[in-house]
Amino acid sequence: MRVEEFDYYLPPELIAQEPVEPRDSSRLLVLHRRDGRLEHRRFYDLPQYLEKGDILVLNDTRVIPARLFGRKAGTGGRVEVLLLSPLGGDRWETLVRPGRRVPPGTRLIFGQGELEARVLSTTDEGGRVLEFAYRGSWEDILARLGRVPLPPYIRRELPDPERYQTVYARHPGSAAAPTAGLHFTPRLLEKIREKGVEVASILLHVGLGTFRPVKEETVEKHRMHAEYYIVLPETAEAINKARARGGRVVAVGTTVVRTLETVATPEGRISPGEGYTDLFIYPGYSFKAVDCLITNFHLPRSTLLMLVSAFAGREKILQAYRVAVEEGYRFFSFGDAMLIL
After folding, report:
1. How far is the C-alpha of 64 from the C-alpha of 265, rounded, in Å?
2. What is the mean pLDDT of residues 221-226?
3. How many Cβ atoms sit within 10 Å of the Cβ of residue 159?
4. Which of 44, 88, 101, 292 sits at 20 to 30 Å (Cα–Cα) from 139?
5. Of the residues 118, 145, 172, which one is the last residue of a structural domain?
6. C-alpha span between 286 and 281 (Å, rounded)
């Protein structure tokens, strides 16, 4: 399967540069997989499509202020570091710009020297492994020196960084937000619960591997970057009970899909656990655990577009995207949403 089969035309002006207010006023394109029928709604209409006995599964990760600006010891040359994933101790996998000027052995200084780092090695993807040294609390230093990273296609700084967090974000660790969840408000979640829909959470810390471009010509050759997940016993039990009584599993975002499909048995039973998943879902994949999906509109040729194409069918997804472009939907992280039933 060729990567170019997942391309589509997107006018640049449809790439959302800022979120809408309130969160749940974003548009919602509803795609019925059975017949390809589309409906144009608002996100606050979501409860109308959920049924008593369903279970809505969220990813309660929190984006960390993973963007650091520093300088090289000795020369004073400016560097930008993006924290990707912890490797144990005070070592992190990172992206560093300009990378070619930061070889292994380079020492970096941040702030007034309260945070330093040494470049240990390079990664296969061109990143850097850094070992940090600091005084005091890592969380406090990061909160003071770091900034919440935004995707490169968003060119404006956010006045309120919390707007790039879900309202239920709890566990710090992500380099990017699980953006399908940005549309929810506390009141909307309350209305969903009032309808008899259970709400449960998994954790998957989102790394940039999910968003890295697919450089291979064929889909099958691409390899996903592993991301850390946790599925608690009570979450697994709640999902299994919901499925046993005929309820649907409604995944909020591709991160939830990948996590549940990672821990599902061939029969669709969810097993609790934690670890790293590099599951790559593309057309031909047989879903075991997820019945419905809430998601945003994804980049051309991306692994996320391939996942939703596997879920709903490539032709149906590309047709829905064509309609979304014609109707002026807003795309990507701060854009509008899809509900795939």
Report:
1. 32
2. 89
3. 7
4. 101
5. 145
6. 9
Confidence of residue 158 (pLDDT cuts 50, 70, 90): confident
* Number of structural domains in the chain: 2
Domain range for 78 is 67-145
Q: Cα separation of 44 and 185, whole Å?
A: 9
Whole-prediction pTM value?
Answer: 0.93
- Does 291 lie in the same domain as 247? yes
Cβ proximity of 240 and 269 under 8 Å: yes
CA distance 100 to 83: 17
pLDDT number for residue 210: 62
The label of the residue with tokens 């390899």 reads 223
CATH number (domain holding residue 111) = 2.40.10.240
DSSP output for 161-219 = GGGGS-TT--EEEESS--GGGGG--HHHHHHHHHTT-EEEEEEE---GGGTS---SSBG
The length of the chain in residues reads 341
Tokens of 209: 């591997």
Spatial distance between the Cα atoms of 55 and 201, rounded to a whole number of angstroms? 10
Query: Do the Cβ atoms of 233 and 202 come closer than 8 Å?
Result: no
- At position 163, the amino acid (one-letter code) is R
The C-alpha angle with vertex 279 and arms to 181 and 217, in degrees rounded to 5, equals: 105
Paired strand residues for 59: 202
- CATH number of the domain where residue 47 is located: 3.40.1780.10
- The residues with which 103 forms a beta bridge, in sequence order, are none
Point out which residues pair with 273 in neighbouring strands. Answer: 231
| Range in 146-155, 237-246, 316-325 with the lowest mean pLDDT | 146-155
For residues 285-303, give the mean pLDDT.
Answer: 97
CA distance 199 to 215: 37
Please tell me whether residues 13 and 128 are part of one structural domain.
no
Residue 163 φ/ψ, nearest 5 degrees:
-70, -15
